[in-house]
Design a protein that fits this description.
heterodimer, A: alpha/beta, 2 domains, two-stranded parallel sheet, B: mainly alpha, MetI-like fold, two-stranded antiparallel ribbon, 25 helices, 74% helix
């Protein structure tokens, strides 16, 4: 009796060990822009082909990707900006060589409350609003009311991209409100009739907000060449990453991944 | 206390054999636990101090770089530009306020039409979205007619429902549109294609009417507008100068930073090489050898062309002052609109200060020296009293905790304003007035509040309280309350309410204890003198327990200041000292807090950077504040214990 119990236990333990060894897991860390919508969808579609692969996605801002890659806690880093030289060095010092892969392009869309009569702004007006020079909607021809600016927080790649793309490198005014995620910006703008914010193209169709035309160009994927606020998003993969992680990256930048990106509202690589 | 006798463990028991009693072992175990806790506390403090202490020298170094590379110089000139922009914005707002005041009716009509259109499109959104998706998914293929039919029917039924005012919050009020106009608008929307998002013709008509009226109203103000434009263009010379010089100094700074990074990279790689495996070592060393590619920056040479432009700055500065005096003479006496007048008054009031400030700038620019060392004292005072907390920026990071501190303080005050009356009141009632059965119900219920996790409260704050307050505040009958209607759903008031809720159990439990501990003789003596129940409570019992109640309030305050999740989610995260000109209404502004900034930024800062250390210093500050509060509370409690004896 006792022996049979022991054998059973042994078998169970063995089975558990085999199962954990067999289930490969890939951990992705970094950008909220990529990690909130696109990557989960890519993962779903990738999983349907590779049974038993587990994914962990932590989307807390591009800056979180690089320390995680260097420490080996992530196999793939997601970033909505290019890695800084010191981030590459820090990883290199730990023996990790990072490869950069362009996943897709993203457009940053200016959103306002849906009742705001302003549906179009010029590049100059956007810069003035976000740097705090223009404080009232009436100054750009809207219904009078103080402008409330919603931005991402400082760890976000989008925060810095927007500074370079739209604000000429100037600082955000202290009156801006720093939100934890893109989704939150869309929510708050939808609740504040004097609100303005920027989101990735994938979030521009959120309810309660209007995507503003910039210099007369509508922010749609079709206009990606004419639209001025657009940028590339990247995956960073260590050179010695395992085959499965590399396969996932190849899948994401391949035709199927690009199709998914397009469906969600990103602009595929050309 | 006498030592407990050794237990009578049977001989041969393992403890017995080693000559130790069971009690001794248990004592050692608990004593060890207590010692370990204290050791951990000391380690935490040491860790905090070790990480934080490096901040001030590093920040000072950063400020020194800010000065050396000339960013400070450009910022001096830029401050005039910012002030000028602000003044221009005031005039523009006055101008538009005056125009809009004469088009109020048209504007309201247009807005109301818009709100009807929005209401209807929101009500039909599910069907509309589904239709759009089906069409998109089908692409060139024909869409299944059956599905289309079904969705269209759904769309029509939703639209009918909405037209009858049964959807959402009902039909929006439209006091400035006649019922015929309203009907026309609804008919136009009902008639348009379900997928179309074009504005109905009537709304466009109203918009056009508004534009026409605005144009008409702007005609008499043409000379004012000209004056504004002329005023705004006087800054163009300075603007160009600042842009050009800021590009130059930024390049200098970037080159300096790059060189620093390269030097550090070499060090990091060499360090790594020391401990690396032999096969990796040679490669790392080779990397290190080729790490530093740039020359160190000579700041004096780099700054020379910028400093050579001081005469140009002088000229631009004079143009700014001239523009200001000129526009002041051209301003109209007063406007018919109150708001426009207020802006005009603000402009007039700010003019002398701006002229004085602008006149000072040239002197400041000439006196500016790149090699002046940044004092340690000014670094520390800049951290404590600085009004800017700017991080992760392109230009220069500043760490000034004033706005965060004020935010934390304001939210705590609001929270206590709620928690004290509720907590202390409930304690007095439960202990003195309530019957036994009520006591048995009230006490655990209030203490149960403590069991709600703060992140859940945060969600409640965003989804329920914030939205509710915002909706209630927009009612016309409440517009007399300062700060109403509330603009920002996430603000200090909402956060303060929730934190108050969290502090109530602490304040309640401890105050109740304090009142309970007042010797019964006090109340009995008061009764014997013929005092009524309420007189006894308010003149005898509560004053006798006051130090305990104060301690309870302080401990509640400690809990509120240290709370993170709720303020991070609900306070609105705006790093700015609230604008106190709104009076009481300023509690409805968003703010950021000491705890919130750590939670929001610590996860993402590079390890060991200045920013990382700054957050640790904020942590130390918080620690000291909470420690001081708790210490004071303990002191008060001790005093109160004496009164009991």
């Amino acid at each position: 009796m006792r022996t049979s119990l022991r054998t059973t236990l042994g078998f169970i333990a063995g089975a558990v060990l085999c199962a954990t060894a067999g289930a490969q897991s890939i951990s992705l860390k970094g950008s909220d822009t990529l990690g909130a919508k696109l990557v989960p969808q890519l993962v779903e579609s990738f999983k349907s082909k590779h049974e038993g692969v587990k994914f962990e996605i932590a989307a807390e801002g591009s800056a979180t990707a690089f320390p995680a890659l260097a420490n080996g806690t992530a196999q793939i880093g997601m970033s909505s900006r290019k890695a800084k030289p010191e981030e590459i060095t820090a990883a290199r010092a730990k023996g990790v060589i990072l490869n950069e892969v362009e996943v897709c392009h993203d457009m940053l869309v200016v959103i306002t409350h849906k009742s705001n009569p302003i549906k179009s702004l010029t590049k100059d007006q956007v810069a003035k609003i976000f740097t705090g020079q223009v404080k009232d909607w009436s100054e750009v021809g809207g219904t009078p009311g103080p402008i409330s600016i919603y931005t991402r927080n400082t760890s976000s790649g989008t925060y810095k991209d927007w500074q370079t793309l739209a604000m000429g490198g100037r600082n955000y005014p202290s009156s801006s409100q720093k939100m934890v995620g893109t989704e939150q910006i869309a929510q708050e703008v939808a609740k504040n009739k004097n609100g303005i914010g920027y989101v990735g193209l994938a979030f521009a169709r959120a309810s309660g907000v209007t995507a503003v035309k910039i210099d007369g160009v509508e922010p749609t994927a079709a206009n990606s060449k004419k639209y001025i606020y657009s940028r590339a998003c990247y995956f960073y993969v260590p050179e010695n990453a395992d085959a499965l992680a590399k396969e996932f990256v190849a899948f994401a930048s391949g035709p199927e991944g690009q199709e998914i990106a397009k469906k969600i509202g990103f602009v595929p690589n050309h | 206390m006498p030592e407990p006798l050794p237990s009578q463990a049977p001989s041969g028991h393992p403890f017995r054999r080693k000559g130790r009693s069971t009690e001794g072992l248990i004592k050692a175990f608990f004593g060890g636990n207590a010692a370990l806790t204290i050791v951990i506390l000391v380690l935490i403090i040491v860790f905090l101090l070790r990480e934080g202490i490096g901040f001030f020298p590093a920040y000072r170094n950063e400020l020194q770089n800010y000065r050396k590379s000339g960013l400070e110089f450009v910022d001096i000139a830029r401050s005039d530009l910012t002030a000028h922009e602000e003044m221009g914005s005031l005039l523009n707002r006055a101008y538009f306020a005056q125009i809009n005041s004469s088009c109020r009716i048209e504007m309201l009509r247009s807005q109301e039409a818009m709100s009807i259109a929005n209401y209807l499109s929101e009500a039909t959104a599910p069907a509309h979205d589904a239709l759009a998706r089906v069409k998109e998914a089908a692409g060139e293929n024909a869409t299944p007619a059956e599905l289309l039919e079904k969705l269209s029917a759904k769309y029509r039924s939703l639209l009918e429902n909405a037209l009858a005012g049964k959807s959402g919050e009902g039909f929006p009020p439209t006091p400035h549109l006649s019922s015929a106009e309203q009907k026309l608008l609804c008919d136009q929307i009902a008639a348009r294609d379900p997928l179309s998002t074009d504005d109905p013709p009537f709304a466009t008509e109203l918009q056009a009417a508004l534009s026409a009226k605005q144009e008409q109203a702007s005609a008499p103000l043409a000379s004012f507008k000209e004056a504004i434009d002329a005023f705004q263009s006087t800054s163009s010379a300075l603007d160009a100068l600042v842009t050009e010089t800021s590009d130059a100094v930024k390049t200098t700074k970037e080159a300096a930073v790059l060189h620093e990074i390269e030097v550090r990279k070499r060090e990091t790689l060499l360090d790594a090489a020391k401990t690396a495996k032999p096969e990796l070592r040679s490669q790392l060393e080779a990397d290190a050898a080729s790490a530093v590619m740039t020359e160190p920056v000579d700041f004096n040479v780099a700054m020379a062309p910028v400093l050579a432009r001081i005469p140009e700055f002088k000229e631009a500065n004079a143009a700014l002052i001239a523009g200001l005096t000129e526009v002041s003479s051209k301003l109209p006496e007063a406007f018919s609109d109150d708001k426009a007048n207020r802006y005009l008054k603000a402009f007039r009031a700010a003019t002398p200060a701006m002229v004085a400030e602008t006149a000072d700038t040239v002197g400041k620019l000439e006196a500016w020296r790149a090699d002046l060392p940044v004092e340690m004292g000014s670094t520390i005072s800049g951290f404590i009293s600085g009004r800017d907390w700017i991080t992760g920026g392109e230009w220069q990071d500043f760490y000034g905790i004033m706005p965060l501190f004020v935010g934390s303080l304001m939210i705590s005050v609001i929270a206590l304003a709620f928690a004290i009356p509720f907590g202390v009141g409930a304690a007095i009632y439960t202990n003195q007035l309530a019957g036994r059965r009520q006591q048995r119900f009230v006490k655990p219920t209030i203490e149960f509040l403590q069991a709600i996790p703060s992140v859940v409260l945060g969600f409640v704050g965003i989804a329920v309280l914030g939205t509710l307050l915002q909706e209630v505040s927009s009612a016309d009958s409440l517009s007399w309350i300062p700060g109403f209607p509330i603009q920002q759903r996430l603000n200090m008031f909402t956060a303060g309410c929730l934190l108050g809720l969290m502090a109530i159990p602490t304040i309640f439990t401890l105050s109740e204890d304090a009142i309970n501990n007042v010797p019964a003789a006090f109340a009995e003596a008061s009764d014997a003198l013929g005092a009524s129940k309420l007189q006894t409570i308010f003149r005898v019992t509560v004053p006798a327990a006051i130090s305990g109640i104060l301690a309870a309030v302080l401990l509640g305050l400690g809990r509120v200041i240290g709370e993170t999740m709720v303020v991070l989610l609900v306070a609105g995260n705006r790093i700015q000292i609230p604008d106190f000109t709104d009076g009481l209404g300023s509690v409805f502004q968003p703010a950021h807090t000491l705890t919130g900034i750590i939670a929001q930024e610590l996860g993402e800062v590079p390890f060991g950077s200045v920013h990382y250390r700054a957050l640790f210093v904020v942590g130390i500050l918080l620690f000291v504040i909470v420690l001081a509060i708790n210490w004071t509370a303990q002191r008060l409690l001790r005093r109160f214990r004496i009164s009991q004896n």
